[in-house]
């Protein structure tokens, strides 16, 4: 991260990337981004700018003169493609930072995604809602509930006036509203909003999808705060099972033995009926956050069921295997073995043992000097 305090010449109206106030500092890496001071430059760098710095050059420089209409149209198509890619990148980054608990850092990523979404889709488009939701959730995490209400009101109004709005976006809106009411201590209203979240997520993805599980998790948290532990336990168990099943499929596909070609002649590649459903950066961060929270809960829970702890340990072991952290995968695998000894579920125990054998076949990462 570098700065140039002489970057704003007199008579040129440059605005800060974060607050839109007059800017006096320039990023000397891309030279197309400006800030009102070092504090906002650092916040933007940590939140998103490090990832997009070089990408912004072609998007913000003055357009070159192009003689033909075909060249101009081709350039516009390229720019549109780049802007849409930036929307995806900044939103995924913002959501990832939220799952990591880095609410302050998520704001620049969300603002960047909102800026590109407005540029591509216009001010009234439903495509702006995911950015508003990241900003709303970041504000909730920072305790700025009035600001969160403003962002979520804007998102809700856009959803209401868009009849073709997808269930996916509705699900995320209701989840954020549920989080807002939970933060205000309005638990009954929070549960109502989270029920709406689960309904729309189930309509879009199914009841046992990882994208639906977040609603169950947050609903479990609300019941837990109310002291309704049995209901919370049931929801937490469902969340664990959903992630366990998803991760088990990924590990199974990644570790299967390739089919041996038969006969003579050229090798013909056959498409597997079972394709891997991978995790993007935000889903990885969500899995780490949710499963570790459930592990902490189960480990310190009095009168816990051994299978609950064994299952969440095995799920975490598989997650870290997918993330290529073999040491952590083995650590939680061993914890799963110990926990499963107190439960007579042969299938679970056998699955854990097979997983540990798989980990042993993976070369250990090189040690640092």
TrEMBL record:
InterPro entries: TPR-like_helical_dom_sf, TPR_rpt, Zinc_finger_MYND_domain, Znf_MYND. The keyword NAD does not apply. Gene3D superfamilies: 6.10.140.2220, Tetratricopeptide repeat domain (1.25.40.10). Signal peptide: none annotated. GO terms for molecular function: zinc ion binding. Pfam families: TPR_12, zf-MYND. Keywords: Metal-binding, Zinc, Zinc-finger. Residues 16-53 form the MYND-type domain. This is MYND-type domain-containing protein. It comes from Potamilus streckersoni. The lineage of its organism: Eukaryota, Metazoa, Spiralia, Lophotrochozoa, Mollusca.
């Amino acid at each position: 991260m570098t700065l140039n305090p002489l970057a704003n010449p007199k008579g040129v109206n440059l605005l800060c990337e974060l607050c839109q106030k007059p800017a006096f500092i320039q990023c000397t890496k891309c030279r197309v981004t400006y800030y009102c001071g070092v504090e906002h430059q650092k916040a933007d760098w940590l939140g998103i700018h490090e990832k997009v710095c070089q990408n912004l050059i072609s998007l913000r420089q003055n357009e070159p003169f192009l003689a033909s209409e075909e060249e101009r149209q081709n350039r516009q198509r390229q720019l549109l493609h780049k802007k849409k890619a930036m929307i995806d990148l900044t939103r995924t980054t913002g959501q990832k930072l939220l799952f990591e608990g880095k609410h302050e850092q998520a704001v620049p990523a969300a603002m960047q995604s909102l800026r590109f979404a407005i540029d591509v889709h216009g001010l009234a488009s439903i495509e702006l809602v995911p950015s508003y939701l990241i900003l709303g959730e970041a504000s909730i995490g920072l305790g700025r509930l009035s600001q969160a209400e403003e962002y979520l009101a804007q998102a809700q109004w856009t959803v209401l006036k868009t009849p073709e709005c997808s269930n996916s976006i509705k699900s995320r809106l209701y989840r954020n509203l549920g989080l807002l009411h939970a933060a205000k201590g309005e638990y009954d209203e929070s549960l109502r909003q989270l029920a709406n979240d689960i309904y729309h997520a189930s309509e879009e993805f199914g009841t046992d999808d990882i994208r639906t599980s977040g609603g169950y998790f947050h609903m479990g948290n609300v019941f837990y705060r109310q002291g309704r532990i049995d209901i919370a336990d049931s929801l937490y168990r469902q969340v664990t099972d959903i992630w366990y099943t998803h991760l088990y499929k990924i590990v199974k596909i990644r570790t299967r033995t390739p089919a041996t070609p038969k006969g003579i002649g050229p090798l013909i590649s056959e498409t597997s009926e079972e394709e891997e459903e991978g995790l993007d950066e935000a889903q990885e961060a969500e899995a780490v956050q949710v499963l570790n929270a459930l592990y902490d809960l189960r480990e310190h829970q009095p009168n816990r069921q051994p299978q609950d702890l064994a299952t969440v340990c095995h799920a975490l072991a598989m997650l870290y295997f997918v993330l290529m952290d073999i040491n952590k995968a083995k650590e939680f695998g061993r914890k799963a073995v110990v926990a499963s000894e107190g439960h007579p579920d042969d299938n679970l125990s056998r699955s854990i043992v097979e997983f540990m054998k798989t980990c042993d076949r993976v070369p250990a990462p090189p040690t640092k000097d």
